Amino acid sequence: MGIFSRLGTLLKSNINDMISKAEDPEKMLNQVLVDMKQQLIEAKKQVAVSIADEKRLRKQSEDEEQKNKDWERKAMMAVRAGDDALAREALARKTEHEESAATLQKQWTLQKQAVDKLKDQLRTLNAKIEEAKRKKNILIARKKRAEAQQAIQKTMSGLSDTSAFETFDRMANKIDQLEAEAEAAGEIAGELTGDTLDSKFKQLEATAGTDHMLAELKAKMGLLPESTQGETKALPAAQNTSKVDEELEALKAQIAGEVMSEEDKR
Predict the structure, then answer these.
(1) Res 152 pLDDT > 60
(2) Do 42 and 147 reside in the same domain of the chain?
(3) Cβ partners under 8 Å of residue 120, min gap 6
């Protein structure tokens, strides 16, 4: 094989491969159905012409048969009139129409057989087209299902790639770092203010509730010693304390009184 022949074969194979890849099954099936329907229309036209020819031959055969009978009747009329010569001419004409009628009858029979065959073929073609329509719908549904499966598999393949999960882990670590930095910044900001009194009271409030509940539970169970229960009754008031100390002692006395009231109520 020469080089040009090989190049020609290579080009044809590449072109055929491109055409094969470019073919859309749905479009191809629709086009095939369009072509088949067009062929059906043309076939119907041909069958209609054949039917018309069959009807024409039948009509001609019937006309010739009628003329055959007419000339036979005329020959009988001539015989009754005693004119044998005229009767012979009528019989000769009768024979012509009889032969023509026989020929047309034979042609009509053949044409009718052909028309019946064409009708069967037309029905078969129409049935095949209807079957092709059903197959087309099934094939298109299979194509779409296959495409959906391919899309799902492609997506799953992308998810199975470790880089996707590594990205999630990396972002989670980054967010953890940002949260830790924000919390540290808040602690530093609180320390830099130099006023830790508010934070101390917040801690005291957080534990006061639990301590109070524990004391109530012990008192209810009778676990508090009597000296402890009565301690709050004799809170000394300092004589030479500062104003803050006085207020503190007053506050302690108030709290002790409230505790005593609550125990009395029990």
Answers:
(1) yes
(2) yes
(3) none
